[in-house]
Amino acid sequence: MVILLYTMCMRNNLIKARTCVYNINYHIVWTVKYRHKILIGDVEQYLKEELLNIAKEKDFIIHTMECDKDHIHLFVSAHPKVSPSYIVKMCKGISGRKLFIKFPEINKKLWKNTLWNSSFYIETIGSTNEENIKRYIENQKRKE
Fold it and tell me: Which of 6, 46, 86, 136 is catalytic?
């Protein structure tokens, strides 16, 4: 039974927890305050690295992510106990603070030490359109 369950997990891209198998996927989008185009070059690279570190620390998985100068798209999987709003809160809060520390020149473009817009978009993704969402996120940068 355990071997069969593990095989199912690998085959269907499911994640196995101690007592359950789950695959809850989210498409998450948020923007830079005032839509300033600051997510380029070193800032973009550092943001992506930090988001991966946050995901590892906070126990969720980022499958795909892409920035487009003033906003970011994430394709995320998480255990049901980790709420999508918690994922956004951790990503925006920690990454914003670390970006201001690493790149103090960003503060000159934004007011009151606020990097991210307060709003965000979350969509739950079923297994049928998982590949479509991944392609959409990967193609964000190519739309210019």
Answer: 136
